[in-house]
Design brief:
This protein is α/β, with parallel strands linked by helices. It folds into three domains: 108 residues, 3-Layer(aba) Sandwich (Rossmann fold), CATH 3.40.50; 111 residues, NadA-like (Rossmann fold); 71 residues, NadA-like (Rossmann fold, 3-Layer(aba) Sandwich), CATH 3.40.50.10800. The protein is 41% helix and 15% strand. The chain has 14 helices and 13 strands. The strands form three sheets. A five-stranded parallel β-sheet has the order 6-5-7-9-8, with helices on both faces. A four-stranded parallel β-sheet has the order 2-1-3-4, with helices on both faces. Strands 11-10-12-13 form a four-stranded parallel β-sheet, with helices on both faces. Strand 1, helix 2 and strand 2 form a beta-alpha-beta unit. The protein starts with a helix and ends with a helix. The relative contact order is 0.17. Bound molecules: 1,3-dihydroxyacetonephosphate (13P) and iron/sulfur cluster. The site of 1,3-dihydroxyacetonephosphate (13P) has 9 residues, from loops. Iron/sulfur cluster (SF4) binds next to loops.
């Protein structure tokens, strides 16, 4: 296809005006795709805003678990994804690995009835369904602390999947004991939160050396990071927050306050024109978020116009039922 970006944008706009469709994009999408969206946000905002949208089609520019969450919350909607890209962290756990983690706790004398599972929204629908079926719920990085606080009231052990960093960081913030299955020697009975050993490869790129470099180069600089970063990074940062919390924190800084940000490149790049740095010597781009191009978006909208929609998300009934319960328990809070 030999269209320029400007031509593609015009064609996308024409199709949007004509079709019963909402285009949704996560903050980590390429700028040119992000600009074409009707709804933008972090994963929590997208789940809530898209649930209340009344168009027949949702074209979701993001990673697969996000499109699946829309389908699970609103099975009557037709959800298409210009690229069926899977977040590498979500890919680290499936329902079999989830069952093995539960068995690990049972083998250490913690019966199922004593476990409240919590899954980070960055997981596929089958894992969310397992969690929902066991009485647990979903969290995002924006509400993880609140969800964990609520779950602890049941007086049970928390099994936190798949992101060990988010689980450990929240435990540290709340003064709770955490351990990682297969990594820490600790007896799980001693821990409040038992984490699965998953992680985000993009947020693992930020190092203590990066923080030391910026603190030395610009004394007084603030360091702001996402809680998917390793606990050693979060402990050294001035601010730890989800995507929307980072955006708010940075927008409220005085104009001349320098800040180095430890999260995805596309987002950091559009945060603030001056005094904002990417906290890494490498470019921390999320490869899967970056897979979606303007051309993919155009072809997906065109497929609706042609009456032959492509890349439609399908989730089976049983998975929808339990994954929805896990997501709705979160939204109710
Ligand atoms: P948010 O919940 O902050 O949108 O994060 C999603 C994500 O994939 C971060 O890497
Ligand atoms: Fe997944 Fe990490 Fe990309 Fe977020 S940044 S979508 S957690 S791989």
């Amino acid at each position: 296809m030999n269209y320029t970006n400007e031509e593609l944008k015009q064609k996308i706009q024409e199709l949007k005006d004509k079709l019963d469709v909402t285009v949704v994009a996560h903050f980590y999408q390429r700028d040119e795709v992000y600009e074409m969206a009707d709804i933008t946000g972090d994963s929590l905002e997208l789940a809530m805003k898209t649930k209340n949208d009344d168009k027949e089609f949702v074209v979701f520019c993001g990673v697969a678990f996000m499109g699946q969450s829309v389908k699970v919350l609103s099975p009557e909607k037709r959800v298409l994804m210009p690229k069926l890209a899977c977040c590498s962290m979500a890919r680290m756990i499936d329902s079999l690995y989830y069952d093995e983690s539960v068995k690990f706790l049972e083998d250490h004398g913690i019966p199922k009835e004593q476990i409240v599972p919590i899954t980070y929204i960055n997981s596929n629908a089958d894992v969310k369904a397992k969690v929902g079926e066991m009485g647990g719920m979903v969290c995002t990085s924006a509400n993880a602390k609140k969800i964990i606080t609520t779950a602890l009231k049941e007086g049970k052990k928390i099994l936190f999947v798949p992101d060990r960093c988010l689980g450990q960081n929240i435990a540290n913030q709340m003064g709770l004991k955490s351990m990682v299955i297969g990594v820490d020697d600790m007896d799980p009975k001693e821990a409040d939160i038992i984490c699965y050993d998953g992680f985000c490869s993009v947020h693992q790129l930020f190092t203590v050396e990066d923080i030391d470099f910026y603190r030395k180069k610009y004394p007084g600089i603030k360091i702001a990071v996402h809680p998917e970063c390793d606990p050693v990074i979060c402990e050294k940062a001035d601010f730890v927050g989800s995507t929307s919390q980072l955006i708010r924190y940075i927008s409220e800084l005085p104009e001349d306050q320098k800040v180095a940000v430890g999260t995805e490149y596309n987002l950091v790049n559009r945060l603030r024109p001056k005094n904002t740095y990417v906290l890494s010597s490498t470019k921390p781009e999320c490869p899967t978020m970056n897979e979606t191009t303007l051309e993919d978006l155009y072809l997906t909208l065109k497929s609706i116009e042609d009456g032959n929609p492509i890349n439609e998300i399908e989730v089976d009934e049983k998975t929808v039922k339990w994954a929805r319960i896990a997501l709705e328990r979160m939204l109710e809070l």
